[in-house]
User: Fold these one by one.
Assistant:
Number 1:
Amino acid sequence: MSSASLPLTANQLIGGTPTLTYFNVAGTKGRGELLRLFFHEAGIAFVDNRVQFADWPALKAKIVASGANPFGSLPVLELNGRNYTQSLPLLRLMADKLGKYAGSNDDERYFVDQVADIYIDWRRSWVTTLGGSAEALKTHQTEALPRCYAAFEFFLAKYDGPFVLGTDFSYADIALYQALNDDGSLESASLVAQYPRLAALAHATAARPNIAKYLEFRKQYIPQATPVPAKAASEPHTAPARSKTPRLLRGIRRLLATVRRALRV
């Protein structure tokens, strides 16, 4: 067989080797993890540039100044000298270049986009919990989470699973899996009882060969992020506690606000 007749690799189809820049959000969370999962599933080799929160303010200034992302947020994907931003549009772009993972006709592509957009609604709520607010977490868990999970469960019935398009895997499946991961719902016993189709999707997604290999790899080797507030709080006090603590808390709040803004869609 001549080289001209060999099938193109995934990296050839997308046009090269991308560099993904995103936070190391507890090692496995956030929008960047959608792209990491997708790249591993599709067999795309990429450079995984993980950013610690402490380094974000300086990097953000560079990203904005360079025009890589005037909005000043991550992820940013660099491919062949061009910068691409926003996680779901990036997944759609990669799926288009590969010719799969987004449906095989207009109706299927619309349906995949429809389900993926519900993930955006879920994420808009989830990101409010990152500051550690008990009230925000309670609101997310009692309002957005059940509303979005119920919608996912409803739409998964259309093609009778285990995936959004039945037996065909799509980028929307990765989005739903990641929502469960970020919520800490993957091992929840109530997930199977209340949302059996969603639980089946999570199981089937994690069992896909390339994803299964990556999940095992990240369990053993991906460094876990050290939250900035924990690091700041552990620093030795050089002033009386009464005067140091308010300044420390204000600094933590400012850092958390910066992180929340950067993580928003």
Number 2:
Amino acid sequence: MHRTVARPVVLAALSCRAGIAHTHPSPSPAQSRVRLGLAAARARNLKTMASKAELEAVPGVSKPDPATQDYIFQQTMYRIKDPKRSLDFYTRIIGFRLIEKLDFPDSKFSLYFLGYHDASEIPEDRKERVNWMFQQPATLELTHNWGTESDPDSKMHNGNDKPQGYGHIGFHVPDVNKACERFEKLGVEFVKKPDAGSMKGLAFIKDPDGYWIEILNGQNSQKLV
């Protein structure tokens, strides 16, 4: 729930292999063709792991400490400019449910927690709900510092413009093409459509603050190996 560190769900390396330009300003068509060609070459030369034993032997990898067996990857946090726009996007378009909202008047900020949960799962009692919410895996925390929605100079850094750092979050969907057809009808901005780039069958869209979201499918991703 820290206000100064964004915690990624997925690394940005895959988007590089997908043929997505990470530069700002936007590259020329010729530059884009060169980058897509380089990405395709990298994809062809990709050496994938053959076994779980090889994964465990990757330099720097350690076996999980038994002390961490009850840990849960609980949240990723984004700062947002306008909660009305962001909540509309993540509930109406992505299908999340708002499961908790915490206001901090003294510090003038609010936290919104979203996830894929049926309404019947969410406790009615406030204390029980907060306790339950902080034990759910993979929630999205949106942090709104009051006043940014009306500040013309307020803009969030998406991590993909220079200087690069944070990359994106990702959602598995049953059918990438159908999901993207729906997103297009709803006016969602695309970074990459499913048939673009060197890696087919996955897409990247943007949320209202410009954060990237990967749209993927497990079976499609088998083509990587």
